[in-house]
Specification:
Blueprint: H1 7-14, H2 20-30, H3 32-42, E1 52-54, H4 61-72, H5 74-84, E2 87-91, E3 95-99, H6 109-115, H7 118-123
Antiparallel strand pairs: 1-3, 2-3
Helix pairs in contact: 2-5, 3-4
Length: about 130
Amino acid sequence: MSLDVSPELLAAADRDEVSDADFVACVRDSLPYAWQVVSSVAGAEPVPGSPTVHEVPPPSEAERGQLLRALASDAIRGGLERHFGVRLAFQNCHKVAAFAPAGLDGADAATYAAFVSPRGQLLNQSPALRDC
């Protein structure tokens, strides 16, 4: 299971009454390692043309799973992006970057495009990351 959803939050979801704040709190509490990684890149001072990047492999498969669940889910990723006010990009099992949305039309546009391109993905591969 990806998230630890309280009965109260589940009932609110059933009534279509879930706020972004409640959803993000559930993500934070359920996926603490993913929250730590995303908050570290999202909270750093952005430098135009140079995203904040986390490149440290997770300490265990459990943490790797948290990061994958957080960034592979459109709802979770979108909630994190709205909460932190960033655009997240993801490569491999651990390389996470945060971009300022305003910069995607300016100074960060080329950097973002390079990071999420097939070329960028291929250049970021190594045998050590094969099973990550």
